[in-house]
């Protein structure tokens, strides 16, 4: 192994003090990892700070930290820097409205496969979407693999990482953005809807679909009409079809 291969990756910060300083400095952190049995006296401070700045925190075995930091003295804590800077949802909405554009956003509920996530980002950027909305936990993050799958679209498409997607939905509704849950649990199709109005398309994970709280809060539900024997689509394909219909209606 080459000497450089023994150094921790450039996007990894390790040591509990260094991680705290990174969070305090406002660095864009993807997630914080803490050794399961860590008893450091600043652990409570780290947990509180991570929650305050809305960065996911994971408890992991020491072996994972050893692999991540390539054997460096990590003191039971490390952080992975985000490849992009996440944006706040409300300023994004205001910026779109100030430009006189009709908002088009895509909310992903529990999509964990980074390749699907990247493919959706690529299509969304191509179809003129203004941003993606993802949950703080339980979803694919913006890493190198996702950026490759997006063909670089994630460098251009804003991504908002939100602590509570229901609250995000209510915020968008307050700004006049209509939400559409793309699901097979309805007879209404996407072709029946007016997608020329400010719209947020909601898509769920392939195995579970859109969560019940979001289904209840969505302004409308719509399915993609299908003629074959297979009753479901890959989430990135479904997103592409929904975005294409939206772009078609908007001309």
The total beta strand count reads 10
- The N- and C-terminal alpha carbons lie at a distance of 55 Å
Mean pLDDT equals 92
Strand content: 15-25%
The number of distinct helices, counting runs of at least 4 residues, comes to: 9
CATH level-3 fold name of the largest domain: Alpha/beta knot
* Unreliable runs: none
The CATH class name of the largest domain reads: Alpha Beta
Largest sheet: 6 strands, parallel
Q: What is the CATH architecture annotation of the largest domain? A: 3-Layer(aba) Sandwich
Decide which structural class fits the backbone. Answer: alpha/beta
Major sheet: arrangement of strands: 7-6-5-9-8-10
Indicate the percent of residues in helices. 25-40%
* Topology as a string of helices (H) and strands (E): EHEHEHEHEHEHEHEEHEH
Rough outline:
elongated
Number of domains: 2
Radius of gyration: 20 Å
Say which CATH homologous superfamily of the largest domain is assigned.
Answer: SPOUT methyltransferase, trefoil knot domain
């Amino acid at each position: 192994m080459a000497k450089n291969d023994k150094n921790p990756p450039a996007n990894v910060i390790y040591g509990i003090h260094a991680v705290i300083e990174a969070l305090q400095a406002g660095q864009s952190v993807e997630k914080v990892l803490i050794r399961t049995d860590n008893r450091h006296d600043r652990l409570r401070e780290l947990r509180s700070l991570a929650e305050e700045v809305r960065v996911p925190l994971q408890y992991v075995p020491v072996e994972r930290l050893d692999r991540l930091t390539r054997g460096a003295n990590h003191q039971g804590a490390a952080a992975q820097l985000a490849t992009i800077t996440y944006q706040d949802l409300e300023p994004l909405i205001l910026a779109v409205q100030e430009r006189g554009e009709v908002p088009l956003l895509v909310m992903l509920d529990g999509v964990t496969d980074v390749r699907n996530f990247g493919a959706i980002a690529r299509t969304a950027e191509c179809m003129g979407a203004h941003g993606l909305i993802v949950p703080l936990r339980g979803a694919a993050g913006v890493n190198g693999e996702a950026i490759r799958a997006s063909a670089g679209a994630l460098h251009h498409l804003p991504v908002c990482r939100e602590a509570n997607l229901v609250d995000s939905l209510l915020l968008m509704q307050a700004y006049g953005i209509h939400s559409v849950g793309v699901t097979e649990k309805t007879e209404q199709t996407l072709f029946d809807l007016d997608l020329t109005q400010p719209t947020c398309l909601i898509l769920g994970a392939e195995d579970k679909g859109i969560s019940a709280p979001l289904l209840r809060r969505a302004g409308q539900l719509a399915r993609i009409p299908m003629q074959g024997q297979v009753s479901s689509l890959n989430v990135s394909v479904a997103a592409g079809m929904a975005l294409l219909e939206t772009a078609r209606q908007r001309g």
